[in-house]
């Protein structure tokens, strides 16, 4: 088996060397002592075609493979030819060799060589174009070093292997780097494809994450292979320069053409309303330069001293990213645009990683597969190097955002990962509360509790995943796989699962129980785990024996036990059989956790990534190996066993008669009730007079009661993932918050929902919560309605803040609920909320009647730290320093005013401005009633701002770095390419939207166009964006109080 992955250049070398090796052996068959050079092969090929050569049977058999190898070499070399100059010496040699290969292939294929043409075609794969070449299995051709070995050739045959291949592998390093970038391009195309499928709800974020992680890991492996051969390639700049410098003019023209086509296709896609983000072949290099220079520029802002953090003035990069307000940040492949998104995201990543490293001594575990993205970022911040895997991962991140954004698609998919982790935590807590695992195996119970605690801790870092589907998906997969692994191990701690499978199988076969689809599916998937030697062996007369074999007893011990003999103590009675784990059932688990790629076909990257996605989809929705909740099943089986013991108590006399001669140790190990039932079922006819059928009917009734229910109930109880990939629609409905629904008693419904929330004593549950969600799904405009009775200056400025909307009530009212707040956010409430005027410095209408506080302000007054953080991070902290309308109090003012110290610490950590003053001129520290606390806040504020680096002192170094980066990215558009068509990011309204209401913030015209001034600076880094940073000492504590 060849190594994974096999690079394109390695394929080219294999194919070329195999074909030339075949020609060497064909030309030396008569032992005439030829000295082989490339020109010699012309004679060899012509002799074969003319029939003057008699090939051996082995050479005839290998001819189809040799022709395939020749085709592969031609197409692979032609594919990279566009990067090389047309008229230099190297290109001339390249064209000459390719033409030779074409001629040889044409002559050999047309000659037939004594074989029918159909035979040639049937024994070799199709390789008529580049993409068919990619689908040729990597193992179709043997390793290149074996092709031209002298063994087996006549002694008189002479050839210089290196000289023979010198022309074939001319410009090797350059060709290899070009092949390397084409592979990364194909990997990225696969990533974009799968995230587009998530947007269309053809797949879930789980499959997309599997594909993205496989792509990132493969890019890292390809990079490692390249660096092993060329150690000088340390950074992304080193590798990029090779491709750029092959032919700078041609490269510039190529990139400009790709960029123009992308903009044209993107605009067509958005205007047509299909929301598909195009991917143009070769696009990766455009993104590579954009992201690479952005990452390099950010390094100039990082303080060398790890004890210092960085802080950017609010708005220094433009408007805060939002998937519906600023989609162009990730859509336009222009450094001046992509810089904005990355530069807004990187500071929090840097702060989180470095503080974790300082606090714990180490940041992320290199052995944890799902930490791959954070490990790349940690290495970037620590080594201050921009590597190819880092750039690739960041492009994956941005492409995932571009594919999912719009109509809260990005936020909803991220939120579903949070919801899933919370669901897993609750399932673990419910199991721990029952004590079923603790009674069977205390250590497993402790591990379960640790897992729940770990998932809870990770919820505090969700702010990093809101605009990062790659990280959100990796975090979800980490939790998901840990849960499934533990559940699988716990289920096998006792023999309960296995023995129950035997009982169910016997009851069904003997007609006491009808087939139960849920249990039938389990027995089909876990058959090898449950039955030894097979399920077919478990039949009347052998039920009990098959169970004993399945619990690792030796055949001789089983025979003795069935004869009623006592088994001696010791291990000699047992035979260690294969222990089954989750990895035995799930290829996806093996791929993601154990890096086992043996299940993936070694072909094109497109087929490899598709294969990984399809395997994952099958395990989620078909076999449901990745969806079945074995922990819940384990809890249910514990209840079934207890119920069986109670129900069969009336048959105690029969049980005692049957069990009396059985081995007591085995009875304790396997649960006496199950063994008795199986023995009764084995001897059902002979023991029928003792009421045995009644016992079997009672047992069947217990099983039926436990598991016979509707498919919907089964899906809710025993599966942790739905049976269809439309997770977003299932949770949030199909109605877009941007569409305008008909007014179906909206006022009445709104008043009803407000009353429900006001009068609730705690979060809504059950039917009340379902009713509210159903109404909002049907009419999202309910979220922008205001209760006029509470919208007064008097109400808004008092402590309650005027809870005038459903969002206010959910955030700060008596029914305050973080999960309901999260759900409303994904229903579009942040764009619909009627308090957006708080963001405006000037309000043109009478502001007395406008609400004073946004929902986040009301939550801050109440001190609900979790809700405040959810609202802030969901909109990328756009309202961190937004003041209330009338009193001009920021969240920090309100936190101090109402004595919420933990909340203030959270706000400060995220960068709240403590110097801003409220409407009465008061600073944040002035709001504290506690004099000591006020002094602490004032001291912290003064210390932070005394240590700001002098911006002008760093100006020279920043400008020098800017110039260096400009030279790195010196490729610019020609003047003739400067007239790039403007891109209007305006989507065609969807058909289901009967009326569309346009919301525009100040200065926003409702569409975003690509500024004409940026068309000539496509590859120019914007390091000057970093000049406004502030560098602060990292405090020993994040607290300011």
Automatic annotation (TrEMBL):
PROSITE patterns: ANK_REPEAT. Residues 987-1000 have a biased composition (Basic residues). ANK repeats lie at residues 887-919. Residues 957-1041 are annotated as: Disordered. InterPro entries: Ankyrin_rpt (IPR002110), Ankyrin_rpt-contain_sf (IPR036770), DUF6604 (IPR046539). Keywords: ANK repeat. Signal peptide: none annotated. This is DUF6604 domain-containing protein.
């Amino acid at each position: 088996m060849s190594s994974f992955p096999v690079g394109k250049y390695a394929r080219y070398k294999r194919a070329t060397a195999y074909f030339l090796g075949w020609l060497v052996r064909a030309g030396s068959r008569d032992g005439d002592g030829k000295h082989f050079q490339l020109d010699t092969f012309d004679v060899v090929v012509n002799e074969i075609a003319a029939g003057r050569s008699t090939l051996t049977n082995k050479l005839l058999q290998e001819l189809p493979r040799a022709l395939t190898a020749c085709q592969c070499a031609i197409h692979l070399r032609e594919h990279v030819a566009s990067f090389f100059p047309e008229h230099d010496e190297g290109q001339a040699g390249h064209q000459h060799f390719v033409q030779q290969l074409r001629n040889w292939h044409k002559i050999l294929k047309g000659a037939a060589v004594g074989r029918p043409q159909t035979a040639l075609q049937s024994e070799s794969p199709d390789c008529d174009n580049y993409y068919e070449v990619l689908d040729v299995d990597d193992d179709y051709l043997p390793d290149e070093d074996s092709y031209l070995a002298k063994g087996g050739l006549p002694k008189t045959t002479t050839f210089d292997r290196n000289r023979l291949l010198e022309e074939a592998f001319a410009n090797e390093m350059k060709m290899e780097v070009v092949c390397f970038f084409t592979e990364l391009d194909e990997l990225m195309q696969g990533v974009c494809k799968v995230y587009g499928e998530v947007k269309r709800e053809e797949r879930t974020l789980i499959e997309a994450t599997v594909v993205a992680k496989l792509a990132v890991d493969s890019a890292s492996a390809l990079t490692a292979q390249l660096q092993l051969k060329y150690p000088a390639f340390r950074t992304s700049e080193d590798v990029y320069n090779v491709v750029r410098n092959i032919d700078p003019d041609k490269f510039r023209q190529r990139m400009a053409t790709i960029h123009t086509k992308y903009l044209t296709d993107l605009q067509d896609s958005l205007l047509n309303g299909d929301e598909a983000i195009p991917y143009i072949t070769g696009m990766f290099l455009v993104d590579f330069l954009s992201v690479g220079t952005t990452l390099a520029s950010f390094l100039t802002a990082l303080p060398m001293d790890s004890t210092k953090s960085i802080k950017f003035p609010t708005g220094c990069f433009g408007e805060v990213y939002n998937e519906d307000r600023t989609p162009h940040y990730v859509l336009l492949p222009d450094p001046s645009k992509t810089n904005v998104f990355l530069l807004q995201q990187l500071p929090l990543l840097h702060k989180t990683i470095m503080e974790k490293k300082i606090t714990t001594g180490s940041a992320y575990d290199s052995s944890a597969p799902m930490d791959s993205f954070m490990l790349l970022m940690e290495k970037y911040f620590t080594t201050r190097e921009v590597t190819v895997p880092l750039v690739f991962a960041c492009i994956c991140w941005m492409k995932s955002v571009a594919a999912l954004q719009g109509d809260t698609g990005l936020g909803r998919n991220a939120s579903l990962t949070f919801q899933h982790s919370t669901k897993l935590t609750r399932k673990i807590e419910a199991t721990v509360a029952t004590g079923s695992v603790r009674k069977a195996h205390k250590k497993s119970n402790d591990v379960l509790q640790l897992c729940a605690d770990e998932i809870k801790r990770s919820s505090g870092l969700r702010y990093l995943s809101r605009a990062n589907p790659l990280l959100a998906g990796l975090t979800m997969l980490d939790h998901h796989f840990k849960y499934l692994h533990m559940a699988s191990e716990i289920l096998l701690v006792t023999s309960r699962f296995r023995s129950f499978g035997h009982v169910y199988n016997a009851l069904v076969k003997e007609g006491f129980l009808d087939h139960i689809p849920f249990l039938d599916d389990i027995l089909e998937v876990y058959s090898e785990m449950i039955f030894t030697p097979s399920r077919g062996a478990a039949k009347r007369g052998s039920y009990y024996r098959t169970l004993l074999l399945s619990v690792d007893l030796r055949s001789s011990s089983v025979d003795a036990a069935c004869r009623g003999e006592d088994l001696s103590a010791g291990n000699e009675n047992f035979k260690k059989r294969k222990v089954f784990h989750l990895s035995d059932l799930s290829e996806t688990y093996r791929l993601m956790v154990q890096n086992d790629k043996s299940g993936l076909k070694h072909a094109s990257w497109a087929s490899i990534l598709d294969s990984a996605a399809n395997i994952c989809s099958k395990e989620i929705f078909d076999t449901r190996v990745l969806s079945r909740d074995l922990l819940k099943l384990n809890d249910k089986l514990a209840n079934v066993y207890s119920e069986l013991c109670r129900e069969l108590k009336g048959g105690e006399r029969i049980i005692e008669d049957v069990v009396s001669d059985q081995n007591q140790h085995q009875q304790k190990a396997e649960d006496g009730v199950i063994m008795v039932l199986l023995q009764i079922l084995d001897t059902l006819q002979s023991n029928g007079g003792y009421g045995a059928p009644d016992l079997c009917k009672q047992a069947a009734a217990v099983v039926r009661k436990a598991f016979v229910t509707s498919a919907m109930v089964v899906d809710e109880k025993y599966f942790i993932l739905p049976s269809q990939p439309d997770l977003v629609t299932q949770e949030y409905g199909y109605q877009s918050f941007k569409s305008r629904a008909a007014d179906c008693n909206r006022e009445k419904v709104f008043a009803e929902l407000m009353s429900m929330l006001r009068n609730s004593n705690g979060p809504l549950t059950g039917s009340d919560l379902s009713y509210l969600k159903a109404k909002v799904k049907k009419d999202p405009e309910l979220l922008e309605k205001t209760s006029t009775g509470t919208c007064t200056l008097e109400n808004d400025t008092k402590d309650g803040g005027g809870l005038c909307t459903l969002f206010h009530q959910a955030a700060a009212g008596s029914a305050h609920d973080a999960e309901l707040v999260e759900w409303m956010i994904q229903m579009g409430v942040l764009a619909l909320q009627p308090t957006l005027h708080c963001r405006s410095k000037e309000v043109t209408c009478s502001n007395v009647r406008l609400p004073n506080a946004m929902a986040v302000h009301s939550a801050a007054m109440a001190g609900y730290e979790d809700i405040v953080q959810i609202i802030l991070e969901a909109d990328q902290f756009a309202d961190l320093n937004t003041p209330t309308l009338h009193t001009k109090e920021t969240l920090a003012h309100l936190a101090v005013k109402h004595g919420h110290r933990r909340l203030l610490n959270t706000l400060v950590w995220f960068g709240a401005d403590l110097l801003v003053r409220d409407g009465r001129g008061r600073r944040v520290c002035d709001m504290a009633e506690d004099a000591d606390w006020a002094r602490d806040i004032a001291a912290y504020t003064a210390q932070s701002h005394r240590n700001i680096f002098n911006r002008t002192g760093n100006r020279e170094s920043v400008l020098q770095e800017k110039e260096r980066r400009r030279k790195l990215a010196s490729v610019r558009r020609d003047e003739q390419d400067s007239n790039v068509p403007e891109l209007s990011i305006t989507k065609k309204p969807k058909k289901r939207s009967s009326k569309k209401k346009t919301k525009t913030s100040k200065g926003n015209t409702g569409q975003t166009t690509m500024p004409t001034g940026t068309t000539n600076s496509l590859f120019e880094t914007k390091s000057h964006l970093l000049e406004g940073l502030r560098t602060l000492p990292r405090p020993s504590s994040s607290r300011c109080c």
